[in-house]
Design goal:
alpha+beta
Length: about 100
Amino acid sequence: MNFPLFPAPGSPDDQAPPVCSAKGCRDAAVWVLAWNNPKLHTPERRKTWLACDAHREHLSSFLGVRGFLKEVVTLTEWEERSDGGEDTERGERSEREEPGSASDG
């Protein structure tokens, strides 16, 4: 299931701060991990996962060992430079995508 990183104004999620994408984590997001799967996405396309401080390294490693990780920046920096040109979806990963639990890292 995908959720917009920046909810539509007035929507119920508009007031909720972005949360970490790690399975089971509901902590506030501090980092944006921009990635793409070259088998599925064009080179310029960027998907995003959000991470709290505690899960940044774990999620970065998960994407990095697969060659998917392209960039890690603070959420503040990502929001400042975002003008709608980036793919700004955050995803809840399924157990298929990340076999370990979020507490592993």
